[in-house]
Every structure is written in C-alpha cells, then in structure tokens.
Amino acid sequence: MPSANRHAGHYRPDIDGLRAIAILSVLAFHAFPAALPGGFVGVDVFFVISGFLITGLLLDDLAVGRFSLVDFYARRIRRIFPALIVVLAACLGYGWFALRAEVYALLGEHTAWGAGFASNLLQWSEVGYFNPAGIRKPLLHLWSLGIEEQYYLVWPLLLWLAWRLPRGPQIAIGLVLATSLVLCLYLSRGNAVAAFYSPYSRFWELAAGAMLAIRAHRMAGTVAPRAIPLANAASLAGLTLIVAATVYIRQNPPYPDWRALLPVASSALLVASGPGGFVNRALLSRKWMVGIGLVSYPLYLWHWPIFVFQNFAHDGDVSWPQRLAGLALAFVLAIATFFFIEKPIRFGMPARRSAPVLFAAMLAIGLCGAAIAHFDGFPAHFRGPAAPYGAYRFDYHADARSPQCWLPPGSRADAYAPECIDPDNGQHLPLVLLWGDSHAGRLYPGLRKIADGRFRIAQFTRSSCAPNFWTFHPRRKVAVCAEGNIHVMRVVQELHPDVVVLFAYWSGWKPRAMDRILLPTVHALRQNGARRVIVVGPAPAWRWPLPNILFRMAREQDRAPPMRMSQSMETDRARIDADMRAAIERQGEAEYVSAMDAFCDARGCLTRTGQDASTLTTWDYGHLTTHGAEYLARRLPLPPATAPAAATPDAAPATMR
Asked: What is the pTM of this model?
C-alpha cells in the first residue's frame, strides 16, 4: 500500500485523496461492519494505487537509464520499514503485559512473519476450525502488505527485462493480469482461502494499476480533444462504483471472486481520469482528503492492533464509544508516526545509511518475534494471582481421539477409524454411542473417565456437524455433514446401541428447527435400534475465550477470579436450553439433560471445577476441557444405573427428564 505519490515527476494530490477513500472504507468496516459491509474493498483500491505509482516510478527510471534494483529496494525499505518497525515493537511491548503466554507466542510468530512480509502465507496456513479468529490477531492486517511486497519481488525485474522488447511492458503486464485474474476466478469457486491469501490470485489487482501507469507513460504530453469530458465521466463513474462496492459487496459468498472487478475497475477509472477529472479535483484533491491520504499507511498499520487489543481489554464486548476512541487513537498515532518517524527518516537521512540500519532493525524485530514464539510466550514471566491463568495451555486433541474419531470438516462420511467403537472382549458391557459436533468430541474424554467397567463407547463426532437426520432422503443431494450423519445412522442400525448421546453447540436453534430436525432425529434413532436416547442441551458459552477473561480479571483485580460468573456470557444459551427441554419432553422419546443446569446456578456458571487454574471448564468460548467434560459426564444417566453424582460444595445436579 505505501508508495511515493509521484509519476513522471508530477505530484498528484488526488491519488492521496483516493488513498483516503480506501483507508476510511477499511476503518469503517473494521469499526462498524454493519454500517459499511463492503468497506474491506478499500484494500483492493490500495493495490491498484500501489501498482500505478510504483510502476510509474520504475518506468521513469527505465526511460532515463538509471534503473537499479538496489536503489528500488532501498526506497521501499525507507518507505515501508520505519512505521512497520514501530508498530511491531509497540505490539510486542503491549502484549508482554496484556496477553497470556499462548496468545503472546502467537503474536510473536505473526511478528516474525510480518517482518518477513509473508503474513499472508501464515494466515493461509492457519485457516482451520480451531485457529484463533481474526479479531484476536493484532497483525492479521499485514496479509495485504505481504502480497504487495511479494509482487515487487518479481515485477521490477520482469519489467526491466520486458523494457528491451517492442511493446514488452504491455505484453508482460497483460500476461500477469490475465493469468492472475483467471486463477483468482478459478480458486474462488473451490478454494476461497487460497483466492484470498495467495499472492498469485491477487497480483492482477496491482497489475491493473501497472497497466494504467504504462498507458500514462506512453501518452505523456498528449492531450486528446475530448479528454476533459471523458475524464469527468470516468471520475464520476469511478466514485459511483466504489460507493456501490462498499455498500453492496459482502464477505459471503467468499471474496474475492468476480465482484473484485468492481472496486478494481472503479479505482482504475478514478486514476485514469487524472487530476483534472471532476471528482478528482472537487473531492479527492481537497486538503483534508489529501491529509488523510498522506497518513493512510501508518493509519492502516495502527488501527487493527488497537481494535484487537480493545477486544482483549473488554472481553470482546467493545461499545461504539470505545470503538470511536480507538479510531481517534489510531489517527493520533498515525499522525505522530508520519511526522516524527517516517518523514525524518525518508527525507532527513541519506539512503545509503538509513536503508541498512532499517533492514537490521526489522531483522531484529523478526528475530525477537521468533524467539517469543519458540519459547511459548515466556510463561514464567507472570507474577501474582494472574500467573497460572497467564501460563495456561490446553491440548484439546490429546485425549479426544482426534482425528480418528473426531473428524475435521470435509472428511469422508465413513472416515472413522475401527477403534472408534470399543471392542466387547466378552464382557457384554452396554454400548454408549456419542454423536455430535466438536463439542461432542470434547465430551468424549469425560465419558472415557467414567466408563471403565461400566460401559463401552462408540464415538462418531465431526467438527461443525450437529447430529441430525433431516437430510436423510434417497433423492436429496446432501452435503458433507448430512452424508456423515447418514453414515452414523447406519452404524446405529447395525450396532443397536444401548444409549445414544446427542450433544452439540446447538447455536441458533429455535423451536421450529427442533420440531423439524431434532425430534425426527430422535424418533429415527429409536426406530433404527437405539434403546435409549439422551439429548444433552447447550453448555455455557462465553463471548471471549474463558482463559483470557480470567487472566484479565486476575491481573486487574490482583486476586484469583471467581469460581462462577455471569458476565461475558452468550445470552442465547438459556433460551435454547428451555426450548430444547420443552420439545424433548413433549415428544417423550428421549431423556433431556440440561448442561446449563449442570454448570450454572443463580450465582453464575462454573469457570473451573476446582480451585486451581488447571481445572478450567473450557479453554476457548465453550468446548469442554477434560475436567469440564468429566464434570458433565458424571451427571448423565448412563448405564448401569447409579446414584446421582455426589454434589460438591459448589455444584448443582443436572436436570433430567
């Protein structure tokens, strides 16, 4: 995104104004996504601007015979490194005090990749069911900087080679644009993550700007008779299209796809219309727009870490006045960075001296981040009551038979391993079949803790797939979840389990869905051989990862966090629990166990089952730890019939029907 705003020796203030539109769109989307749902296309605008300006500078150098890769990269270092070094260092400094070790280690890893301008590749590799959401990654936004700099590893050399051939630059950029665009459209149909993060599927956006620069270079000094009316029309069309893109484009279906042509085309129209276009001179060249554009790069760097750290400070519940305060802080830091860091280094220090120093500083920041990641965020540095929560880590795969019996999304319907069904070994123990999503996968360790000598377990759990039977129809085209659930129903027909336990996150379930989906599933289970069915209702869920909440509370209050809490909780759990209980009782074919009753009472919901931090009930927003799973499993009416679990001093028995 950062680039010098000069082309053929002439400064264009309207380009800085276009940068202002791009950064304001991104800020509005990140601060208030419902208000400007397509504001993320501002990044596409930045790509076009960058391709235009940088290619223009390269063409100027080639035209006078002073092209040098060393000089080009020295200029890039002086332009990009100062602000980025400051932001990375500030994030690491703040994270040392405010983040748990596990989260700080992730920040260290992202710092190392960000310093190496490969953040997009890291984000691409991290996409997965249990990877942290973007709102918990302070350096997520560096993916776009990675794509841009990867482009400039290739394009200057390619342009230099093409310069020697007749129409070489036009042919080269045409091939880059066409190939990259085709790849983007292809990937968007089957691999949206690759389409988003791959540099090859994004190069066409920078190439569009480069094509404008090549056109402008060829036409330098010529003025067509109808240039002004065409420029006015192009600028008006460009502004109209860019507004339409920010208002009407959504993240779903996944972006980018053919819709990315809209912000790219609108940016190209505004750039091509020149400083004389109506919108360019009447709006984009205004001093306040130019001023915002001048600080757009540091503003982009600062705003996202501020928003993320606000979420950590407020457990994901940031009010709109707090978000406005975050925006104001981002502007203050961006202006300070521009005047006190960027300008003195870019214009006050010799290039031969500043570039090596900046390169060494960036290398040091990257190595520092790598060390933080390597040493797991230095968990020993915490002190006081917050220490055990700051150092808390949980391996959710270790005892949950993942991925053999807890399948990742997209796995084959019959991908379950043979060991997912405990062998009988001649003991004739009752068989309990566990069916559900990732939350059921994390209930398995609790069942295993109490199963020994009582019953066998068959585990059929799959991430993102609630247990339901509603798509089981021979002529209906079914998705992966439905195919997997059909397979489980066939297993039930074959095994005739003594008990089937249904458990899931149950997110967003309403009475109509329960009547149309859950109850027919229960009925089908009974018809296909399940002797008993137990439906376990929704467990408590938190708006922010529970360990983060407890660490913040312990750090701020300098005392151990409470055993029970009602703050920072999702509010739909009690409603779903009540509706599900009513539906199951009305049908009368299954037993209902309220996980909410098991974990919660009038004082709030359990945060841990013992006094120590190692007994937390969940390591994220709601998936059960082994302690939490055992706590719930002991409250299920499983064979052989036993007396209810002894109540602990701070425990309430589950409600069973």
From this structure: 0.90
